Amino acid sequence: LLMHYFPKEITLLNLAGEESIQLQKSLLSAYPTIIVSTPSRILPHVESSTGKAILSALEFLVIDEADLVMS
After folding, report:
1. Torsion of CA 60, 24, 38, 44, to 10 degrees
2. Range list of H helices, 11-59
3. Phi and psi angles of residue 30, each rounded to the nearest 5 degrees, phi first
4. Cα 49 from chain centre
5. pLDDT tens, 3-61?
6. Cα–Cα 20 to 30 A to 22, which of 29, 50, 54, 68?
């Protein structure tokens, strides 16, 4: 039943500070199903036109450290 709602292949991308922004842009261009990121790492992608297009097609976004952002 759940497979009806999800694509056949679920891809996950973790955007972390250890990787270059250029590498992450390349990985984002594969249109992952789920992105896990800290707010500071996702922001440059949200602000770029390419990132906006990719993120507009995103199904799930997990903000890590959101508890720190909310305080």
Report:
1. -100
2. 21-28, 39-47, 49-56
3. -85, 5
4. 15
5. 666 656 888 888 887 788 889 888 888 888 888 888 888 888 888 887 787 778 877 78
6. 68
